[in-house]
Structure formats: C-alpha cells, structure tokens
Amino acid sequence: xxxxxxxxxxMIISTANMLLIIWFIIGLLFAFNVVSPSNQFAYAVHxxxxxxxxxxxxxxxxxxxxxxxxDFSPMVFLMILNAVGYILQGAVR
Length: 93
Fold this sequence. Notes:
mainly alpha
C-alpha cells in the first residue's frame, strides 16, 4: 500500500516538475519575443500554468530577495519538489 502511494506521489511530483519547466520556457519565449503573446494557444497554456503555480510560488517570492528581472522562485520550487520526492523515497525504504 505504501509503495503504491509513493508511486502516485512520485508521478505527481514528476508531472509538476515537467509542467513548471514548460511554464518557465514559455515565459522565456514570450520575454525574448520568440513567440508572440498574441499566440492564443501559447498564451492559454502559460496562463493556465501560471494560475496553477502562482499560489505555490508567491510565498517563495516573499522570502527571496528581489533580483530584478530574473525570477528564481521556479528553481527553488523545483528543488523543494525534488527534496520532498527524496524524503518520501527514503521513508518508503
């Protein structure tokens, strides 16, 4: 039972990692004008992922120092997700 629960949580963490990276890359593409924000599909994906991750990133941004144009909160969130995954993996074994 615990192994199945760990597998489910591991899949959720992996999916969150992938979606966060996709969100970050789309944001970079918008920032460097590679993709226009008027592209409805890219904008809809970016907006949906922003709404998903913004509640988790907001507290991280409050704690971190302001670095100007570069937002390091997604990287910190990725490290937190991976740390939780390693902790769960250690707890199951």
